[in-house]
Amino acid sequence: MTFDRSNLEHVARLAMLDLSDDELDSLAKDLDHVLSHFEAIQKIDVSDIDDTDLAKTITTPLRADTPAGSLSNEEATKQSARAEGGLFVVPKVIG
Amino acid sequence: MTTHYEAVIGLEVHAQLMTRTKIFCGCENRFGAPPNTLVCPVCLGMPGVLPVLNERAVELAIRAGNALGCDIRSRSVFARKNYFYPDLPKGYQISQFDQPVCEGGHVPLGDGRSIELTRIHLEEDAGKSFHPEGGGEHSLVDLNRCGVPLIEIVSEPVIRSAEDAYSYLVNLKRILEYTEVCDGNMEQGSLRCDANVSLRPVGTTTLGTKTELKNLNSFRATRLGIEAEIARQEKILTGGGTIRQETMQWDADRGVPVPMRSKEEAHDYRYFPEPDLPPLLLSQEKLRAVRDAMPELPDAKRERFQTEYGLREYDAGVLTDSAQLARFFETVVKHFPHADRAANFLMGPYLRLQKEQEGDDLLPVEPEALAQLLALEKGGAVSPAAGRQVFEAMVRTGKAPADLVKELGLEQISDDGALQTVVDEVLAANPEQVAEFLGGKEKVLGFLMGQVMKATRGKGNPGVLTPMLRASLEAKRG
């Protein structure tokens, strides 16, 4: 596959990355390279190989439904750029 | 020739699970706390933290799947759904994508039909943003809700009318409440509904372009919103136009669906398996344990109410219509072991008052207090008519029934002398009706009894009064 500049612009927009022209050119090239690498791996026939044992038996650890406390409002908000009345203040998100 | 269209509707219902804590951290899952006081580094999305799945959330998701006849997958996988919005501090929502915890199943519509489900998956809720009026260039964010456990219940696109969508939601809510999976509170947002709506010419099978209708936060909004969206699309199509795929928001005040500002490429979520959580494997023992702990479902409860309490089918149906009311009834009967009287009172004065108050919620009376009132009535301390007045006062004031009987002066009059005086006065004041009775018109007895009860302000003991009134009338035959 080829990963070109327009693919990169799309992904960068979704990830909210502001890339310069130079960056777009060089990153598109790098990512195209990475993807062709994986393309090569994808071609390997693994149809007769079982999943690894680990993936079959390891389950996600579970937590008991017991409250473990929270941060105070001061602690929670003090690291934000701006808070008012205990709420985080963010740029307006709806018209 | 005009083309006739049929609607194709699929519903996505988000239900908050009744756990004590959030899905991936130990913050409390509670509505109404001061903003940003139920948050921690995990749900705030601080760097370096790891989510740990809440076992209870998993159990409740399986329970919902059992109640709705789903297949429970022994292996399910969490996935990242990536998007940017201020109420989602991590920049992604942990959800499930191609391997959800439940697949298939159905929601009964209550009339023999049912709607098939695609899936039920586990995910985390986002926070809440506020957009203050005249708030200038800013929005405000409360992250208490961020990380609250949700199940999303997705129906197949097989619903054909707003009426059926309404009925689907009513029945789904009832099952979730019954199984104590979700408290079903639509006002507080613990149950939320989005609808995918499209139209197609009758007789065709290809799906038309759909719109997603959000903000259907009550039963009424669901019905009206879908009806309005169907009408809007029909108008466009019959006028030769085409439907744009977009997200609409139901404006309940204006009664119209309005397009939401389209978030650019919002639907490109770039799902991938959640690297912080290994797959969830469920053993047969675990599935059995959850099944063994299943609460009683509505149909089973209705049958049990008939056999255990000797109720008629209709009465059992009314009393088991909501899990809350059924639980209330059973608590009353535990303290006042006369199921028929308790059932009559609930179906009569209780539900009437509830309806007057225009709410689905239980009245602010404890079942134990109602049991006390019914015991007073049964013991003859208060007449049924006065009992209703006491009950209304209980709802109003929250006071104990025995105190209210005294306070309102509603002690039942069983004293023969006092009642005889009242009977004599009523007969003297209604000579025409007395004559009619003596002439053979038995029906008049009811009228005279009513007059006597009125004169005693509902306090007369009907058990004493009825024979007394008849005897006094008979005595007049001379």
Put the structure in a nutshell.
The complex is a heterodimer of chains A (95) and B (478). Chain A is built from four helices and three strands; from the N terminus they run H-H-H-E-H-E-E. Chain A has helices spanning 5-14, 21-42, 53-57, 73-78, and strands spanning 62-63, 83-84, 87-91.
Could you characterize the architecture of this molecule?
The complex is a heterodimer of chains A (95) and B (478). Helix content of chain A is 45%, strand content 9%. Chain A is mainly alpha-helical and 95 residues long. Chain A has a domain at 5-42: Histone, subunit A. In chain A, helix 1 packs across helix 2. With 478 residues, chain B is of the alpha+beta class. Chain B has three domains: 5-286, no CATH class; 296-407, no CATH class; 416-475, Orthogonal Bundle (Arc Repressor Mutant, subunit A), CATH 1.10.10. Chain B is 40% helix and 19% strand. Chain B has helices at 55-67, 162-178, 219-238, 284-292, 298-309, 313-319, 323-335, 339-356, 367-378, 384-397, 401-407, 416-429, 431-438, 444-455, 462-475, and strands spanning 5-16, 53-54, 71-72, 75-76, 78-82, 92-96, 102-103, 106-108, 114-124, 128-130, 138-142, 149-155, 191-201, 211-216, 247-251, 256-259, 272-273, 280-281. In chain B, a hairpin with a 7-residue loop joins strand 10 and strand 11. In chain B, helix 9 (367-378) packs antiparallel against helix 10 (384-397) and helix 14 (444-455) packs across helix 15 (462-475). The model of chain B has no long low-confidence stretch (mean pLDDT 91). The chains are: A mainly alpha (95), B alpha+beta (478). The A-B interface holds A 10, 13-14, 16, 55, 57-73, 76-77, 83-95 and B 19-21, 25-28, 34-41, 44, 52-58, 78, 82, 84-86, 129-131, 135-143, 261, 264-265, 268, 270, 277-281. Strand 3 (87-91) of chain A pairs antiparallel with strand 11 of chain B, so a sheet runs across the interface.
